[in-house]
Amino acid sequence: MKLGNRLIKATMLSTISIASLGLGTVAHAQDAAPQAEEEASEDNVIIVTATKREQTLQDVPISVSVTSAETIERSQVRDLIDLQTLVPSLKVGQLQSSANTNFIIRGFGNGANNSGIEPSVGVFIDGVYRSRSAAQIGDLANIQRVEVLRGPQSTLFGKNASAGIISIVTKEPQFEFGGGVEVSYGNYDAMVVKANVTGPIADTLAVSLEGNYNKRDGYVNVVNLGTKSNDRDRWGVRGQILWEPSDLVKVRLIADYDKINEICCGVANVFNGPTGAAIGALGGNIDRNDPFSLDTFQNFESVNDIKNYGFSGQVDWDLTDGLSLTSISAYRAVRSFTNQDSDFTSADLIGNNQADAAINTYTQELRIASDFDGMFNFLLGGFYFKEDIDIASQLLFGRDFRNYANLLSGGAYVANEPLLRLLNGIPATVAPFGSQGLGRFENFAYKNTAWSIFGQVDLELTDGLTLTAGFNYTKDRKAVASNNSTTDTFSTIDLIQTAANAGIPGTIPAGTFPGQTAALFPRTTACTTGAPAGTCNPFLGFRPLQFLPAFLNFPNAVESGKTRDSDLSYTLRANYKFSDQISGYLTYATGFKATSFNLSTDSRPFPTDFIAGSPAQVPAPAASPIRSAGLALNNLTTGTRFAGPEDAVVYELGLKGQFDGFGFNLALFKQVLKGFQSNVFSGTGFVLGNAEKQSTTGMEIDATISPTRDLNFTVSYTYLDPKFDKFTGGSAFNATNNIAPTDLTGRTPTGISKHSVSVGGTYNIEVGGGNKLILHTDYQLNSAYQIAQGLPFKAAIESLNASVSFAMENGLELSLWGRNLTEPKYNPVIFASVAQSGSLSGYPPPPRFYGASAKFKF
User: Fold this and answer.
1) Is 24 a member of any domain?
2) Which residues belong to any copy of the TonB-dependent receptor plug domain (predicted)?
3) Number of compact structural domains in the chain
4) How would residue 16 be classed by pLDDT, with cut points 50, 70 and 90?
5) How many other CB atoms are there within 10 angstroms of residue 245's CB atom?
6) Neighbours of 309 (CB within 10 A)
7) Is 361 among the domain residues?
8) Phi and psi torsions of 581, nearest 5°
């Protein structure tokens, strides 16, 4: 069969329910179109492209969950964030802004919020890699299916698939006129409109056009402003052209544009620390110690202005019988501007915390694949990737910050300012300490180029036994430059040198320094009259208020700002078909993720390049390359510029079965990541590092039961037992609720549930005259997991969704639906409150959503 005909057939077959196979997460044969049902009865197959070749889901020797378009519609899945309610192994979070989404599979994954960190879970839409989270959110109007591939997939998908793959496949233009429109209205004044139309404009040319509009009021109340946060306000358009000049050649062109303009994301106060009293004294307000509160306080509405657009071209060409060539070329662009009142109080501590990012991505894939009738088949390809990122961000003090710092110091901050200026030679022209508008300014320029060669060979040794071997050789290069600065002069003062300038060490008469007896400077034995020389420096009490110290920009004489990585990933697999109903596989595979840069305020020199300290201290800091090069700055601290590569290994045993009315998919695995890139949010930046070794042992099982043609049940269960086998450079909250370096070896990674269960059911009731009443429900429960290292808080997540639909023979369908019906209470993430030492903030859970929709297909 020629490639073009095969792909058209694949398009029809892909609408078939997974229930007809008994594999994947959730799908229902009763949802399929009549034509697709006829195909199912003939072939009883569904075609997927998990291995970049058309295969039946039964024959794919990979742990893969497939969610059909019908299931997505029945569950009212709006975007990839909602998809996690259908796939137990998948966890999706949208946190700091609308531009950031994080995907985790089997407990592995990162990349949200920090643009320099490439995700461990790769997202592909119609074969095009979406490298950054802002480019992965889209209310696609015409989804055909979503495939979730679990475990390392670097052999076929490259350097950013060390944890898994999410592949979204949309419907191609059709050579028969058709389309549809859907309108949905729900609580919080939610309005969703989707429409698509397709048809031929010539014998060999078909087109499609689709659009979507999604608007909803926010569910978090900004009390002092009288406004709402966590809303939805996004729209998009997408056009396709399909050209089939012959049975041998097919060309598919896609262009899209979508826009997000939302107020996100509201934050709750989990723990009100010692700074809360100072905020209250300023007239500020917090909904104190209420972790699930949907009431927050801010000085201004958050801004999330995001544009995502691009185009791609795919060419499929049958070269000869059994050989086909595929080329996919793409350009993607993301433009995002965000601004947030990061202290989340009505006191104006942080005037703004904004980031302006421009991301341009170019990809080219070329591969040749065989479809021979014999024992041997292969796939060979190459991939090129180029990405440029420019980020300009700033964090500025608000009008209350100076008074806030003064309150925390018991008046010492202002009272000691003349003395500190005198001792450090700070001229009067420099703005008063903590003045409104002072802050940090960051600029990063990031360039990444990579290429890879990959291939796979399938050898059917005997009837039913197939051996597979695959490889991927990748070269990755990154170059990053920073141009960061601070105007907070106070944070650049060397307090040890200040004491030396004042004639300290020496004996200090009581009352020498204003505020010496305040809370920040308690009078201890070391700070009294007659104290031994060198034992007292009351200025050191100001260190907690030096929020924004100087940056050391790079590249410089010591730090090149460049990384060069290469890797050979491979897969070895044996797949055996015991009968027409049962097959099994055994896999050993490796994965790779390249170096990731820390493009945040916490991008600091490595300890191997710099030993922190003041030259005035006794003894002086030891020599280090940065100090020897004359690059040392006051209060410069160490950290990481980047995290080294991740190397993944998985051992997996799988069994798949398909029987009349019952099917299952079982996988047992152990997955290990060496160099796992840990990314911990510190409130205004990120602590980036490598865990020497993290492993997860687990089990996944998906099953479907169809007692009758009109009744279908699904159940999925995932068990994960993760641990840090070795992580000496970790970070965790200490007893004062502040992040500190911690050896996490032997601990359980946060954010991972040991048990996850998803169940669902659909019942079709014939009403007469070709009409149907369709009842659907699905429920997911994730067992309690630790939210943050060092904190006692845990979260158990559940989601109950349901819908009742009346589908008429004329193509009109009316539905009542509800999502998150049990309204569980949990905080998916907890972090240190910005500029509020000892306090904790967290993201509250979403409320219940419900509504009605009308859909018409023609």
Assistant:
1) yes
2) 57-165
3) 1
4) very low
5) 12
6) 17
7) yes
8) -105, -25
